[in-house]
Write a structure and sequence with these properties.
With 498 residues, the chain is of the alpha/beta class. It has helices at 8-15, 54-68, 71-74, 77-93, 95-106, 110-129, 173-185, 199-211, 225-234, 247-257, 282-294, 314-327, 346-361, 395-398, 414-422, 437-446, 479-485; strands spanning 20-22, 25-27, 34-38, 45-50, 150-158, 161-165, 188-192, 218-220, 240-244, 263-267, 273-276, 306-310, 365-368, 385-388, 405-411, 429-433, 451-454, 466-467, 473-474, 476-477, 487-495. A hairpin with a 2-residue loop joins strand 1 (20-22) and strand 2 (25-27). Helix 4 (77-93) runs antiparallel to helix 6 and helix 4 crosses helix 8 (199-211). The longest helix is centred in the N-terminal third of the chain and has 20 residues, at 110-129. The structure holds 1,4-dihydronicotinamide adenine dinucleotide and magnesium ion (MG). Residues 225, 246, 249 line the site of magnesium ion.
C-alpha cells in the first residue's frame, strides 16, 4: 500500500508530552489529567494530551486579558502584519509535518491535508495579515440639535479576549478562520481545539510561539466540550466567543454567553441542496456532486448532501455519480493511493451507520455503497454512499449526516424545486449546475443560504464572507465582515464650541 513514512520530527512530536499553553508557558492541566488521541485509520492511541478543566480555563483567560491591556496592545499594526506573515511562512515551511499530523488524528488523505488544508491555512493567515493597518474608523458629519459645532469620529478597537472553539473536520484551517481575524484586530485568544484532533493545534501554537507573538496573545486549552469548552463559553472574562460545530452545541454556547452578554459568532450545521438543471454539463455536474459530498469523507458543514436532479437527466447523473463513488479508494490517509480516509471516530461512524439503517427502513433505494469496505476491518471506514428517492420527510433528507452519504431526489417544476431546496432549518450553502444565465442568477437569489455556488462547490475564499442563514449560524466569517465581529466601534463626540 506504499505508506508515506512518518517524518522523524512527527514521530518526535507524537512521543513528547502535549501540554496546555498559557501566558507563554507550556504546562500540564492543573489537576494533572490527560486524555488520549486515536488514529482513526488504525484505532491505535497516538498521543496523550493535557485534559483542561475550569481552573486551566481561568488561567488562560487571565493570561489573555493581561497581555491584551499591556504588551500586545503596544504592538503596532505593521508589526502585527509582520508577525502574521512570519506565521504564514512558518505554516508553509512545515506543510509536510502539519499534513502528516492532520492525517494521523483526523484520517483525511495526506494530499488533502498537506496540499489542501495546510496551504489554505497559510493563505488565510496571509490574507488577514494585510488587515491590521486597514481597520479604520470614520469622521461623520453629525447635526446636533443645539447647533453646537461638533466633531464626531469612530475608533475601532479589539473586542477583547476571544474564545475560539473549533471542530475536528478541518482541525488546522478552522483555527486560522478564527485566529486570523483575532490576531489582525489585536484581540487576545484562548483556542480550544476538538478533543479528537488537538495535535495539529498544538503544533500550530508551537509555531506561533516561535514567531515571537507576546506571551498570552494566543493561549491553548486542549480538552473536552463539557469540561473545557463550557466554562470558556460561560466565562465572564471572555468578551467574544467564536464557534464552529454542531447546531446543538451552538445553542448551548449562545445560552452560556448571555451571562456577560459576550459577542457570539456561530458556524453550525447544514443540509445543503445541490441542484442540477436539465441544461447542465452533465459530466461536470456529476463530478461536482460527487466531490461536494465525498470530499473530507462528507464531514464538511457545507457537504452537498441533498442532490436535486431534473428528472430528464436523472439516469445519466446517477450513472456518473455511482462511477465516481466506485472510483474512490477508501483506506488509510497515509497510503499513497487513498482518496477517501476513515471517519474521524467510532462515534461518528456509529452516527453515520445509524442513518444508513434508518434510510433503508424509510424506503430510500440504495444505489451504491452503504457498507464498511472489504478488507478494512479496523478503522472507521465507510464506503461512499448514494441513496435515491427518499421522501422529503426521511431523516436522510432532513438531518445533517456528516458522512459520505448523498440523498438524490428528482424534480420537474422549478418553483416547487426552490421551495423544496429551502424547506430546511439550515441555510449554510446551496449550489446549482446550469448554463442558463437567467436561471442561474434567478435561482441564486431565491436560495436561502450564506454561500451559493454556480457550476462549482466548496469554493471558500478568505476575502469573501462565509456563514449561515437560519439554524446554520450567526454572523459571517472571512472577508471584511469578520473584522466587524472582532472589533468594537466607539463613537467619539468632541464639542468644538468656543
Ligand atoms: P460538537 O459541536 O460537539 O464539537 C465541536 C467543538 O465544540 C469541539 O471543540 C467540542 O469540544 C466543543 N464543545 C462540545 N460541547 C461543548 C460545550 N457544551 N461548550 C463548549 N464547547 C463544546 O460536534 P461533535 O460532537 O464533534 O460532532 C457532532 C455533529 O456535529 C457532527 O456529526 C456534525 O453533524 C456536527 N459538526 C459540524 C461541524 C461543522 O463544521 N459545522 C463540525 C463538527 C461537527
Ligand atoms: Mg458533541
Amino acid at each position: 500500500m506504499n505508506n508515506t513514512q512518518l517524518l522523524p520530527q512527527v514521530q518526535a512530536f507524537l512521543d513528547k508530552p502535549h501540554q496546555l499553553f498559557i501566558g507563554g508557558q507550556w504546562c500540564a492541566a492543573a489537576d494533572g489529567g490527560t486524555f488520549t488521541v486515536e488514529n482513526p485509520a488504525t484505532t491505535q492511541v497516538i498521543a496523550e494530551v493535557a485534559d483542561a478543566a475550569e481552573d486551566d480555563v481561568n488561567a488562560a483567560v487571565a493570561a489573555a486579558r493581561d497581555t491584551l491591556d499591556t504588551e500586545w496592545k503596544q504592538v503596532s499594526p505593521s508589526e502585527r502584519t509582520r508577525l502574521m506573515l512570519r506565521l504564514a511562512d512558518a505554516i508553509e515551511a512545515h506543510a509536510e509535518e502539519l499534513g502528516q499530523i492532520i492525517t494521523l488524528e483526523n484520517g483525511k488523505p495526506y494530499t488533502n491535508a498537506q496540499q489542501g488544508e495546510v496551504r489554505i491555512t497559510a493563505n488565510i493567515i496571509r490574507y488577514f495579515a494585510g488587515w491590521p493597518s486597514k481597520i479604520e474608523g470614520s469622521t461623520i458629519p453629525v447635526s446636533p440639535s443645539s447647533g453646537e459645532p461638533m466633531l464626531n469620529y469612530t475608533l475601532r478597537e479589539p473586542v477583547g479576549v476571544c474564545a475560539l472553539v473549533v471542530p475536528w473536520n478541518f482541525p488546522l484551517s478552522m483555527c486560522a478562520w478564527k485566529l486570523g481575524p483575532a490576531l489582525a484586530t489585536g484581540c487576545a485568544s484562548v483556542l480550544k481545539p476538538a478533543e479528537q484532533t488537538p495535535l495539529v493545534a498544538i503544533r500550530l501554537v508551537e509555531l506561533i510561539e516561535a514567531c515571537g507573538f507576546p506571551a498570552g496573545t494566543v493561549n491553548l486549552i486542549t480538552g473536552f466540550g463539557a469540561k473545557a469548552g463550557a466554562p470558556l463559553a460561560a466565562h465572564p472574562g471572555v468578551d467574544k466567543i467564536a464557534f464552529t460545530g454542531s447546531t446543538q452545541v451552538g445553542r448551548l454556547i449562545a445560552q452560556a454567553a448571555t451571562g456577560n452578554m459576550k459577542k457570539v459568532s456561530l458556524e453550525l450545521g447544514g443540509k445543503s441542496p445541490n441542484i442540477i438543471l436539465p441544461d447542465a454539463d452533465i459530466k461536470r455536474a456529476a463530478k461536482g456532486a460527487a466531490d461536494g459530498i465525498f470530499y473530507n469523507q462528507g464531514q464538511v458543514c457545507t457537504a452537498a448532501s441533498r442532490l436535486y436532479v431534473h428528472d430528464s437527466v436523472l439516469d445519466q447523473i446517477l450513472d456518473e455519480l455511482s462511477s465516481h463513488a466506485a472510483k474512490h479508494v477508501v483506506g488509510p490517509g497515509l497510503a499513497a493511493d487513498t482518496t477517501m480516509g476513515p471517519l474521524v471516530s467510532a462515534a461518528q461512524h456509529r452516527t453515520v451507520s445509524g442513518y444508513l439503517e434508518r434510510a433503508a427502513n424509510e424506503g430510500a433505494e440504495l444505489i451504491c455503497g452503504g457498507q464498511r469496505p472489504e478488507g478494512l476491518e479496523t478503522g472507521h471506514f465507510l464506503e461512499p454512499t448514494v441513496f435515491l428517492d427518499a421522501s422529503e420527510q426521511a431523516c436522510i433528507a432532513r438531518e445533517e449526516i456528516f458522512g459520505p452519504v448523498v440523498t438524490v431526489m428528482s424534480w420537474s417544476d422549478v418553483d416547487e424545486l426552490v421551495h423544496r431546496a429551502n424547506n430546511t432549518p439550515y441555510g449554510l450553502a446551496a449550489g446549482l449546475w446550469t448554463n442558463d444565465l437567467r436561471q442561474a442568477h434567478t435561482i441564486a437569489a431565491e436560495l436561502k443560504a450564506g454561500s451559493v455556488w454556480v457550476n462549482c462547490w466548496n469554493v471558500v475564499d478568505p476575502a469573501s464572507p462565509f456563514g449561515g442563514y437560519k439554524q446554520s449560524g450567526w454572523g459571517r466569517e472571512m472577508g471584511k465582515n469578520v473584522i466587524d465581529a472582532y472589533t468594537e466601534t466607539k463613537s467619539v463626540f468632541v464639542s468644538l464650541a468656543g
